[in-house]
Design brief:
Two copies of one chain form a homodimer. The first copy, chain A, is of the alpha+beta class. Chain A has two domains: 69 residues, Winged helix-like DNA-binding domain superfamily/Winged helix DNA-binding domain (Arc Repressor Mutant, subunit A, Orthogonal Bundle), CATH 1.10.10.10; 141 residues, Chorismate lyase. Chain A contains eight helices and ten strands. In chain A, the strands form two sheets. The first copy, chain A, has a six-stranded antiparallel beta sheet with strand order 4-5-6-9-8-7. A three-stranded antiparallel beta sheet of chain A has the order 1-3-2. Chains A and B meet through α3, α4, β7, β8 and β10 of A and α4, β7, β8 and β10 of B. The structure holds a DNA duplex.
Chain lengths: 242, 242
DNA sequence: TAGTGGTCTAGACCACAAA
DNA sequence: TTGTGGTCTAGACCACTAG
C-alpha cells in the first residue's frame, strides 16, 4: 500500500495527520493501532512510531485501554513557541501577509562577551543585520542578527538578507542553523525601536535573546528579537516532566 | 540484569542519564546501542526507546553512522519553559530556597469570559487565590489562580494552599491538572503588584496567562503569573518542525 | 570496509478501560 | 470479557560516517 522513501513511518504520520485535519475522524477517536497497521499494510511498530511523533507534536493523545484521540485543545494553537522556526511562517499562521525590510547592515568588532559566546578571535568581525518583519504592512517584529563574518564562503548582497536567516546561512555559509537556545526578556520600547515598530515609548514588550547553534552544536549566531504583542501572541504547552 | 517495574525502558533511561550526569562518558560519546543493550541485558529496541526519550529531553543527540553524544549545550539549561510544572522546582533549579505566602483567598462570581472559558454556570463561584513565591525570602513570582468552586469535594483551610496547585487539586478535588496552555504577555508593574514583588512602578516584566486542563482536556483553572526577571530567567529551545 | 544509528517486521505478553 | 495501548524481544536490512 505504501512505498519506501520517505520512510513508512513518515508516510503513515502524514496520512493520519491529514485525516485528522480533514476531520475524517469525527468524534475525536482514531482507529486502533492494529486497525491502522492493517489498513496501511505495515507493522504495528511502524504505526506506533508515527503516532508517537504525532503525540509529541500534541496532535493526538493516547489512553491505555481506551484508544487514541484527536487533541482538539491544542489543534487550534497557532504559534507554539518551541516550534517557531521562521517568523514568516508565524505571521502566516496568524493570517497575515508577511514581508521584510532591511533596516541596517554593517560589520563590527565583537565585544568581549560576544567573542566568547561565539568563540571568535578579537580580530574577526561580526556581520550585524537589522531586519523588520511586517504583517499586512504593519511592523511587528524587529530582529538584530550577529553572525561571524568568517563563516561565509560566498559573497552576497543586501537583497539576499530578505530570506529567512536559516535559509541565508544555508546558501552563503558552510554551517547550517540547527536550533536556538532562547531566553525570554521583558523590556520597554525606546528611541529607534519605538520608531521602527510604531509603538509609543515605554510600551512593555517581549524580546528574545538567542544563541543559534549548528549541527555540531557550535554557536554560530546571536540574535535579539522584539515583538509587538498586540499583533502577535505566543503560546506554549506546559506539561509535567516528559 | 534489570528487573521489571518500572519499565526496562525507564530503568535504562535513568541508568544512562545518571552516567551522563556523573560525567562517566567523557568526551561526550556514549556506547553504541548494541553495546548498551548487551551491558544491560535487554533488547536494542528497549535501549533505542530510552535513548529516544533522552533525545526528546535534549540530553543527547544522535548522528547516523557516527554515534550518540552527550549534548553539552543544553545540559546546563535550568528552567526549560516547556517543562515548568511547579514553581518551587524552578526556584530550586536556580539554586534558591523556595517558600510561599498566601496574599489573598476569596470567592467571586466569574465574569462572562471566565464562565465561558471554564464552562461554568452564572450561579457558580470561583475560588481566587493570590500566592507569592519567594526565593531566599525575596519575592519573585506572583500567581493568581481562579478555580471553579464546584470541583472541590473536600474542605480545605488556607494552609493547604501553600502546596503546589497541581498537588492541591489532586488532594481536594476530583480532577487532576494535566497541562497548561500558556500565553506570554508583556506588562509593567503597578500598584499592588509592585508592592508585592518589591519592584518600582513601570518596571517591565513577563507574565503568563494560562488555562489549565485536566486529563479529559476540560479546562479547570485560569491563572495569571508575574515574574521578576532579574532573579529568574526562562529559556527554551527552538528547533525546526519536529 | 567496519561500525553506527535508522527503519521495519512479526509476534508475545501485560495493564488498563469500557461494556 | 474484549479490545485498546504499553512494553519487550530477536532479528533483518538500510543509510550513513569515519578511518
Amino acid at each position: 500500500m505504501l512505498k519506501r522513501k520517505p520512510s513508512l513511518t513518515e508516510q503513515a504520520k502524514t496520512y493520519i495527520k491529514q485525516r485528522i485535519q480533514n476531520d475524517e475522524y469525527d468524534g475525536a477517536r482514531i482507529p486502533s493501532e492494529t486497525e491502522l497497521a492493517f489498513q496501511l499494510g505495515v507493522s504495528r511498530t511502524t504505526i506506533r512510531d508515527a503516532l508517537s511523533r504525532l503525540q509529541i507534536e500534541g496532535v493526538i493523545y493516547r489512553k491505555q485501554g481506551a484508544g487514541t484521540f484527536v487533541n482538539k485543545a491544542t489543534l487550534q494553537i497557532k504559534s507554539r513557541l518551541e516550534e517557531i522556526w521562521c517568523y514568516e511562517n508565524v505571521l502566516e499562521d496568524h493570517g497575515y501577509v508577511p514581508s521584510t525590510r532591511i533596516l541596517g547592515m554593517r560589520r563590527e568588532r565583537p565585544d568581549l562577551e560576544q567573542s566568547i559566546t561565539l568563540g571568535m578571535e578579537e580580530s574577526e568581525e561580526l556581520l550585524i543585520v537589522e531586519k523588520l518583519f511586517l504583517a499586512n504592512d504593519r511592523p511587528v517584529i524587529l530582529t538584530v542578527n550577529q553572525i561571524p563574518v568568517k563563516i561565509f564562503e560566498r559573497p552576497f548582497v543586501v537583497e539576499d538578507l530578505h530570506a529567512p536567516v536559516f535559509q541565508f546561512l544555508q546558501d552563503f555559509s558552510r554551517r547550517r542553523l540547527s536550533y536556538y537556545v532562547s531566553e525570554i526578556v521583558p523590556s520597554t520600547v525606546s528611541g529607534a525601536l519605538s520608531e521602527a515598530l510604531g509603538l509609543e515609548a515605554q510600551t512593555p514588550l517581549i524580546s528574545f535573546e538567542e544563541t543559534g547553534y549548528d549541527e555540531e552544536h557550535e554557536p554560530i549566531l546571536l540574535a535579539r528579537s522584539y515583538f509587538r504583542d498586540d499583533l502577535l501572541r505566543f503560546r506554549l504547552i506546559r506539561r509535567e516532566v516528559v
